[in-house]
Amino acid sequence: MSKIDEYIAKRSQRSANFTREYKEENQQLQVAVEVHSLRDKLGMSQREFAKLVGKPQSTIARIESGKMNVSINVLNEIADATNQKLTVRFEPITA
């Protein structure tokens, strides 16, 4: 286990609030990475990508920076506009 994993585990044991916030931030970061990767794969700037998906460039920037809690509806709009399939799945938590 890495030092950061140890720290997260210790803080999580002491604070349910920390656990909730950590999970939320981690999810936003995962979405940010996926959206950025998709845009990069398509070879588009944020402005071009935003125009394609029908959103302001600032929205794409907030998604990619992890500062926006993106709804499933917005992710579906991105998937539809880019001819992608959005998949949501549940996975067991590993310690």
TrEMBL record:
It holds the Pfam family HTH_3. This is HTH cro/C1-type domain-containing protein. It comes from Limosilactobacillus caviae. InterPro entries: Cro/C1-type_HTH, Lambda_DNA-bd_dom_sf. Residues 35-89 form the HTH cro/C1-type domain.
